[in-house]
Design brief:
- It is built from 13 helices and 14 strands.
- The protein has helices spanning 13-27, 51-55, 67-79, 98-105, 108-111, 141-145, 158-163, 165-170, 220-232, 250-260, 275-287, 309-315, 319-330; strands spanning 8-12, 31-35, 60-62, 83-90, 121-126, 151-153, 175-180, 187-191, 203-206, 211-215, 237-241, 244-246, 263-270, 296-300.
- A seven-stranded mixed beta sheet has the order 3-2-4-5-7-6-12, sandwiched between helices. A five-stranded mixed beta sheet has the order 9-11-10-13-14, with helices on both faces.
Length: 331
């Protein structure tokens, strides 16, 4: 039981996502799930396990191995009034459907003069750290955050995993949800009742006064650990979880920088042309005179993600890297 007396349930990120899918399928007959192995196999990462047996093959649909085809089918279903949830195994495979996402889903409302909304949700796993090789391990969500006409979400907590799907389905425009693979086994207490997630706002995961640490998705646990380490040294770090990568919550970023006067942006993507670069540029544009030090960026090494564990760990942003960057900003 929590401090306010509400009951909490022990769960995992994977189970929270599954419960969100179960709620969506159970509350709206227009909702269906489709993708590779989402049915009989229960999803490549086990998120949809049991949903086929509960809702049947019309609502939980296994698809052929063609991302362009089944994302296109999802777009068509959305245009016809359905509320499809399309699962793509990993973000790297979504590139096979990039034409559908960029040239159809993101543009049809504009090109039709507002006549053809595309209420489509696309879920995909992103990120590295699990020794799955370069073709399964990159963080490309920043590419999609570049595209007007879509909303890009990166749930990093149990609460967001559980409660971001419903407002995403209610959005009349396409929504992409990036689930970091390292989070699926994360467990914790999930409040039985949680206020709906407002997709327009970032979240302050830890208040602080000395430096702002800005991140999202799978990097959040590392950044929170870095904040703990910094606190032990007497440095108070505020942690901002972006949650929504497009549109960015500029007000949350600028307000935090105004409090701390220093910023570190942590992004598992490559540094060049990254979301971290965009956030850094916005801080420079809006908060330049609030800064007491240059904005620091902590990103992955500019290499295809290695398979070998120690090389993969060396290529990824780690807690020690975030601590070091914070020291450069503060010292």
């Amino acid at each position: 039981m929590s401090d306010d007396g509400t009951h909490e349930a022990k769960t995992t990120y994977r189970e929270a996502m599954r419960e969100a899918l179960r709620e969506a399928l159970g509350s709206d007959d227009r909702v269906f799930l489709m993708g590779e192995d989402v049915g009989r196999y229960g999803g490549c990462f086990g998120v949809s396990l049991g949903l086929l047996e509960e809702f049947g093959p019309e609502r939980v649909r296994d698809t052929p191995l063609s991302e362009s085809a089944f994302v296109g089918a999802g777009i068509g279903a959305a245009l016809a009034g359905m509320r499809p949830i399309v699962e793509i195994m990993t973000v790297n495979f979504s590139l096979l459907a990039l034409d559908q996402i960029l040239n159809n889903a993101a543009t049809l409302l504009h090109m039709s003069g507002g006549q053809l909304p595309v209420p489509l949700v696309i879920r995909m796993t992103t990120g590295a750290g699990r020794q799955l090789g370069a073709q399964h391990s990159h963080s490309l969500e920043g590419w999609y955050a570049h595209i007007p006409g879509i909303r890009v979400l990166a749930p990093a907590t149990l609460e967001d995993a559980r409660h971001m799907l419903a407002p995403a389905l209610a959005d009349p425009d396409p929504v992409l949800i990036f689930e970091h693979g390292s989070l699926y086994n994360v467990s914790g207490e999930l409040p039985a009742s949680t206020a709906p997630v407002d997709l327009d706002y970032a979240a302050i995961r830890r208040p602080g006064t000395d430096v702002t640490l800005i991140t999202y998705g799978g990097s959040l646990p590392k950044v929170l650990a870095a904040a703990d380490a910094l606190a032990a040294e007497g440095i108070s770090a505020e942690v901002i979880d972006l949650r929504t990568l497009r549109p960015l919550d500029d007000s949350a970023i600028t307000a935090s920088v105004a409090r701390t006067h220093r910023a570190v942006v942590v992004d598992e993507a490559w540094r060049t042309g990254s979301l971290a670069a965009e956030v850094s540029a916005r801080i420079a544009e809006a908060s330049f005179y609030e800064l007491d030090a240059p904005v620091e960026r902590v990103c992955s090494a500019e290499v295809p993600m290695p398979y070998a564990r120690r090389l993969e760990e060396a290529a990824l942003p780690q807690t020690a890297d975030v601590v070091a960057a914070a020291h450069r900003a503060v010292d």
